[in-house]
Amino acid sequence: MMDEIKKSISAILHERTTSPLFGTLIFSWVIWNWKIVYLTFFVSESKISLTKVEYIVVNYCDFNSLITYPILSSLALLTIVPFFSNGAYWLSINFSNWRLKQKNLVEKKQLLTVEQSIELREQILKQEEKFSNLVQDKNLEIERLKELMEQSESTINSDNENNDKEELIKLSVRFKSNKSELESVKYIISCIQSNYRMKDSNEISKVLSLLESYDLIDKSNSALYKFTDKGKVFLRYINE
């Protein structure tokens, strides 16, 4: 129970001493009644004719000094002083800004020394050299990529050509192994080369469809069939 009372009293005293209102009030009271404090702590009762309490009651017990003036002083400190403090802070900030601006103006107008100019030039040259090397590396990388793309395209084209060649050889071998189809193919070839219209028959239609499916002939730009580039290669194999 006693511990709880002590803690409660300690908490109240801590709140009173740390509160701006009570702290200011105590400070004001001590200023207005400093004689009481001095007499209480630093003057011995042997030097006065009465006890300390009686002496204080007789000489310093004034209502204004004890209550009125400390309260008015506390209110003044709590309301007026912050305005002066904020004003001083505002002046300090503005002065710092003004000083910084003046410093920047002076530094802008100030000429570089020879050593500073040489150092700055060396830094610029290093940056330019670094940038140039970077651009060179990127260009080399682009060239390598172009070479790789060309090689890939060449390989793909070569593979396609080989595939087409094998495909055309197989097709020509097929036609050569079938006499009726071979005759139809030769008839179609002669008609195309001579710009003649072909007769209509199932065998010829069948061979025409086959040649179109292999992209060897087309008639997209004319009523007559023509050989494609691939078809011209096929002619060499079929005539061998």
How would you describe this protein?
A two-stranded antiparallel ribbon has the order 1-2. The model has no long low-confidence stretch (mean pLDDT 75). The longest helix is centred in the middle third of the chain and has 64 residues, at 114-177. The chain is mostly helical. The protein is built from nine helices and two strands.
Question: Main traits of this protein?
Answer:
240 residues, mainly alpha, two-stranded antiparallel sheet, 9 helices, 2 strands, 2% strand, rod-shaped
Brief account:
The chain is mostly helical. The chain has helices spanning 2-18, 20-32, 34-42, 52-60, 63-109, 114-177, 179-194, 202-213, 229-238; strands at 217-218, 226-227.
C-alpha Rg (nearest Å): 56 Å
What overall geometry do the principal axes of the alpha carbons give?
A: rod-shaped
Query: End-to-end distance, in Å?
Result: 123 Å
Task: Tally the beta strands.
Answer: 2
Q: Low-confidence segments, ≥5 residues, pLDDT <50? A: none
Mean pLDDT: 75
In helices, the fraction of residues equals: over 70%
Strand and helix order: HHHHHHHHEEH
Task: Note the main sheet.
Answer: 2 strands, antiparallel
Put simply, the count of helices is 9
- Secondary-structure-based class equals mainly alpha
Main-sheet strand order equals 1-2
What is the beta-strand fraction? under 5%
